[in-house]
Q: What sequence folds into this?
């Protein structure tokens, strides 16, 4: 009966499930943030591409793009911020695919932890990373002549909206990463989804300059909504409608993608 | 709960991935405090069986329990009592050894005050104290496995699943891991060990179950399997090929199977070593054949495996032969 005695020995204090879910999420998030600190290249690489875009559009293409009523650099930067968090969401897919690949997820599955924490911890850590990345990009913006037309609260609210958008997309890419299960494929699978979202949007040029059929898409997709919301908050103008629409997109994406990602998590590995 | 003596019990486990039948009705019973070696070639279903028993995968049929707890009905409860060390060292490369163990301790919900002391204790026991604050990516293969094993033990699980714990390790590190596993067994832990190394099963397991194509094809102690499916082999070297050929013909009547010969060497499978050896020597001496070498090889699990599956085990299985993801 040695087995039975060990069972009693192994009985742990029971905590409410929600407490477990929160502490496990923080443990996983902490683990992911340690990785970020120890491999700072990850942060550098995720800002190099947007910085190149800033330089490209500010100094190469920007001269040829006319935006009514605004300096192009002011129009451009909120678009670049949204692009940055959108492409950054691919890191969620790559990170989870790596965990599947190395077998770390298998270890998590064998532990008596809250199962949702593997995903919530990852998306939370990626949101923290996005705070750093967006802050860095705002600083880059200031260096190339970007000026906030409203005030510091508008700026912070816009940054918050961008981080929320990144968080929402993280859930989409969590499902992608788990489903494909290897980092290279995750990256390759993400790009074709991202390109029409980022480039066929109001991020870099006014939607009015596009052909009619493309306008229909560009006006009614989440990235444009977030860019418009962030622009309103940073540059001025009517904010309520724009921001509400952007937040609604983010909430909607999480509401659909999060349960889906959890389902994929239960199925995979 | 009639089977409480069995720490691990599986009855008629079935699992298929699409058209591939991974488990075709597996029965297993591991009494508490013993080690079961689950042996089989790549793709035999070893890893799938472990994943069902550790609640990572649901079986399509049959049932399984760990410490009397049904794995399908109470997976969360089962996870409180099991430790898993996988085929691929499942530790985080970017975290230090200490951070890895602390993370597992937190996720296993050890009382907060116990997490750090437990991590330090395990690092010490597994000879990793000096490397505790180095990222795991700087570790050698053997160190990673030891850390992986330590991570499986953080929450004092009474039942341990080791899925090919020494695959890909050099011989010295392998012996090191074996010694650690031996110590755990001495502490009363129940172990289910999958392996492709017969020597590993021979050395660690109380009982061995051989599976192939998702079915159990033999079981017993190592000694039982050897006497049932293997045989003692007398190896005699002779001065010439002609002499070897003659010796082979002469010794056939002593052998349990047809003797084999190659070049100047003859292998005679026999049932009782010493006695038959005397007879064999007398026989060839009577014909004036002088042996140049003489070896008696005890039956090995390799013979058992060859007899049962018609295949030798691969000495160095290539990593990734069994799919990591069950998505197939």
A:
């Amino acid at each position: 009966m040695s087995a039975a005695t060990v069972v009693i020995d192994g009985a742990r204090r029971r905590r409410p499930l929600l407490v477990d879910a929160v502490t496990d999420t923080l443990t996983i998030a902490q683990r992911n943030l340690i990785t970020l600190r120890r491999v700072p290249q990850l942060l550098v690489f995720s800002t190099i591409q947007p910085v190149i875009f800033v330089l490209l559009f500010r100094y190469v293409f920007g001269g040829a793009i006319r935006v009514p009523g605004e300096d192009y650099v002011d129009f451009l930067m909120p678009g670049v911020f949204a692009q940055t968090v959108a492409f950054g969401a691919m890191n969620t897919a790559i990170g989870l695919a790596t965990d599947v690949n190395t077998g770390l997820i298998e270890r998590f599955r064998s532990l008596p932890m809250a199962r949702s924490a593997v995903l919530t911890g990852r998306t939370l850590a990626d949101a923290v990373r996005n705070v750093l990345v967006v802050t860095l990009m705002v600083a880059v913006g200031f260096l190339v002549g970007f000026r906030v037309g409203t005030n510091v609260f508008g700026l912070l609210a816009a940054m918050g909206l961008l981080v929320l958008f990144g968080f929402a997309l993280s859930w989409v890419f969590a499902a992608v990463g788990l489903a494909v299960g290897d980092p290279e494929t995750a990256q390759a699978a993400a790009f074709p989804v991202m390109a029409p979202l980022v480039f066929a949007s109001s991020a870099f040029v006014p939607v009015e300059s596009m052909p009619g059929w493309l306008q229909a898409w560009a006006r009614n997709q989440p990235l444009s909504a977030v860019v418009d919301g962030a622009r309103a908050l940073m540059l001025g103008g009517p904010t309520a409608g724009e921001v509400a629409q952007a937040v609604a997109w983010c909430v909607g994406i999480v509401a659909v993608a999060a349960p889906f990602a959890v389902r994929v998590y239960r199925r995979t590995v | 709960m009639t089977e409480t003596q069995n720490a691990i019990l599986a009855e008629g486990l079935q699992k298929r991935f699409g058209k591939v039948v991974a488990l075709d009705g597996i029965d297993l019973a591991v009494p508490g405090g013993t080690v079961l070696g689950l042996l089989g070639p790549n793709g035999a279903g070893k890893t799938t069986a472990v994943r069902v028993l550790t609640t990572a995968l649901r079986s399509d049929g049959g049932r399984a329990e760990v410490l009397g707890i049904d794995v399908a009905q109470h997976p969360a409860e089962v996870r409180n009592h099991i430790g898993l060390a996988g085929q691929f060292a499942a530790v985080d490369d970017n975290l230090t050894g200490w951070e890895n163990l602390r993370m597992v301790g937190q996720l296993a919900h050890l009382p907060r005050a116990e997490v750090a002391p437990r991590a330090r204790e395990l690092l010490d026991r597994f000879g990793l104290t000096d490397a505790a604050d180095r990222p795991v990516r700087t570790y050698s293969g053997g160190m990673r496995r030891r850390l992986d094993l330590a991570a499986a033990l953080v929450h004092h699980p009474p039942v341990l699943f080791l899925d090919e714990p020494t695959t890909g390790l050099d011989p010295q590190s392998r012996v090191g891991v074996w010694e650690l596993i031996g110590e755990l067994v001495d502490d009363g832990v129940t172990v289910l060990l999958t392996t492709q190394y017969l020597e590993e099963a021979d050395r660690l397991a109380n009982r061995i179950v051989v599976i192939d194509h998702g079915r159990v094809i033999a079981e017993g102690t190592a000694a039982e399997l050897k006497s049932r499916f293997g045989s003692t082999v007398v190896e005699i070297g002779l001065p010439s090929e002609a002499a070897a050929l003659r010796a082979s013909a002469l010794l056939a009547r002593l052998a349990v199977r047809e003797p084999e010969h190659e070049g100047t060497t003859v292998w005679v499978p026999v049932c009782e070593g010493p006695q038959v050896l005397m007879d064999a020597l007398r026989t060839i001496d009577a014909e004036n054949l002088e042996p140049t070498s003489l070896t008696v090889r005890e039956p090995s699990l390799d013979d058992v495996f060859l007899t049962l599956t018609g295949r030798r085990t691969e000495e160095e299985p290539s990593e990734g032969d069994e799919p990591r993801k069950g998505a197939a």
Remarks:
- The interface with chain B takes residues 1-4, 6-7, 9-13, 15, 20, 23-24, 27-28, 30-31, 34-35, 38-39, 100-104, 106-113, 117, 181, 268-269 of chain A (CB under 8 Å).
